[in-house]
Amino acid sequence: MRIGELASETGVGVRLLRYYEEQGLLASERTSGGHRSYAADAPAAVARIRALLAAGLPTRVIRELMPCFAGDGTELQACVLDHLRTQLDGLDARIADLQRARTSLSGILDASERRLATT
Prior knowledge:
With 119 residues, the chain is mostly helical. Helices cover 63% and strands 3% of the residues. It comes from Actinomadura verrucosospora.
């Protein structure tokens, strides 16, 4: 399938598909005319990429995970689950940091508004 067809079928823009290919997330062959040609399973690969991006994974991690899918969905082989747990732990730590920052900023805002209300 050509890139325009893949874009149409997946709802992902041509430019983004090219980016996925540059990042080593998606593979294509070149026709004799130099056009990209994708395998029949390319729409499933794009769906997997989108799911992993939505989960907050960077493309370097997704590249490592792409060969490890089990079946047609987004389930991965057991050998990479520890890697995913590490990514989840990192997200949890970032969320905790953001929550602390939010609490601090909220306190500053509340104190400032109270002070303005008394003046």
